[in-house]
Design brief:
binds pyridoxal-5'-phosphate, single chain
């Protein structure tokens, strides 16, 4: 579909273009396999000489339609769905890194991605240096080594809601001859399209706003097609040298701008699995059809809640990038002019104990390990996701012991505030 269509139209219509007599609504292709007439036809698919479906671990038409919608929304050339956001980031990294390689990443990222980079990829021989995303360009550039293969950051970090200076990160990455990979989960392409600011590859946990209803865990990788792998051929042998598992085919030569996603699909998905189920892709597509309506409501409600909290005597501090005086206000204005997201954090006077009492008294806002869906929810990291850490360790990890993470939903803002108020009064 025409990429010049506006995001609202792409949310509703992109990806699935039925022909005469075909279902208007994207069908769930609930089939592991696909039928062919001759052995020869199937052989061509296995050799990547022709494109087509043969086994859902590699590709499925429902998944491909949803991936195409997300690619259109991000302004990319190709995309691939994965079983989770974790799988999306792992595949995006592992597609261009192998044992002996190195990654530079922002520090203040999602805990799962931090563990992947700091612990699990290390076991595979891939090292990571973490940098302060707000540091000067020279300081970040100093973390690069000859074997560095990519730079990584999150448009809006989870849970710190720090806004990434994408243009600065792109400049640093490109000066080093590596791509910038940006996790755009919290902003979504409705609020920010990182490719417009120089990012090369975008990843998503579609579990969050894209699904939007907390029904399905999923992920996505989108390629802008802009990074010139051949110009750095020695750095990226996986893309620029023959693949012995495909009779010596070279992805960058055979597929051009589609090389990154084709390799991720035909090699990593083939060998490691992690496909999104077509059922979940169907639900994700339903979520995407209203993403452009939900994001403004999340942002409007979060800003109203943040402003209300800021003026309440019982509240010690509030962190939301769209608040005047927030450290990231200028970056948010630049990269997220229509609003950032629905997630904010705050602390109550009296610290940890008061935070727990407050949360137990909430009625509308549920205590759940989730963010970024239609229902308002809260989490106290010091008691939940980070409960093994002491207060000193919490502070070192950037999670204040009194930090309450609030994911503001799309209910009525007045009702959300009233719930917070009654819980504070108790
Ligand atoms: C949730 C999240 C992930 C992990 O996604 P899952 O779908 O839970 O595997 C990765 N990055 C960010 C920014 C997230 O919020």
């Amino acid at each position: 579909m025409d990429n010049k269509l506006k995001p609202e139209t792409l949310c509703v219509q992109a990806g699935w273009n039925p022909g005469k007599g075909e279902p208007r609504v994207l069908p769930i292709y609930q089939s592991t396999t696909f039928k062919y007439e001759t052995s020869e036809q199937m052989a061509k698919l296995f050799d990547l000489e022709e494109s087509g479906y043969f086994y859902t671990r590699l590709q499925n038409p429902t998944n491909d339609a949803v991936a195409a919608k997300i690619a259109a929304l991000e302004g990319g050339v190709a995309a691939m769905l994965t079983s989770s956001g974790q799988a999306a980031n792992f595949f995006a990294f592992f597609n261009i890194c192998e044992a002996g390689d190195h990654i530079v990443s922002a520090t203040g990222i999602y805990g799962g991605t931090y563990n992947l980079l700091a612990v699990t990829l290390k076991k595979l021989g891939i090292d990571c240096t973490f940098v302060d995303q707000d540091a000067a360009e020279e300081e970040i550039a100093a973390a690069f080594r000859p074997n560095t293969k990519l730079l990584f950051g999150e448009t809006i970090s989870n849970p710190g809601v720090m806004v990434l200076d994408i243009k600065k990160f792109a400049r640093i990455a490109h000066a080093q001859g590596v791509p910038l990979i940006v996790d755009n989960t919290f902003a979504t392409p409705v609020n920010c399209r990182p490719f417009e600011w120089g990012a090369d590859i975008v990843t998503h946990s579609t579990t969050k706003y894209m699904d939007g209803h907390a029904t399905s865990v999923g992920g996505c990788i989108v390629d802008s097609g802009n990074f010139d792998w051949n110009a750095q051929a020695a750095k990226y042998p996986g893309l620029c040298e023959p693949d012995p598992s495909y009779h010596g085919l070279t992805y960058s030569k055979a597929f051009g701008k589609m090389a990154f996603i084709t390799k991720a699909t035909s090699q990593l998905m083939r060998d490691l699995g992690s496909i999104q189920s077509p059922q979940n892709a169907f639900l994700l597509n339903l979520g995407l059809e209203t993403l452009h309506l939900r994001m403004p409501q999340h942002c409007k409600n979060a800003l109203a809640v943040a402003k209300w909290l800021e003026q309440n005597d019982r509240v010690a501090w509030v962190n939301y990038p769209d608040l005047e005086g927030n450290k990231y206000r200028d970056l948010a204005r630049k990269y997220l002019p229509d609003g950032s997201c629905g997630v904010l954090s705050f602390g109550l006077k009296g610290g940890r104990d008061v935070a727990i009492k407050f949360m137990d008294n909430l009625q509308l806002a549920a205590i759940v390990t989730h963010v970024a869906d239609a229902r308002t929810c809260v989490l106290h990291p010091a008691s939940h996701t980070h409960r093994q850490l002491s207060d000193e360790q919490l502070i070192a990890a950037g999670v204040a012991p009194d930090l309450i993470r609030l994911s503001v939903g799309i209910e009525n803002a007045g009702d959300i505030i009233a719930d917070i108020e009654q819980a504070l009064n108790k």
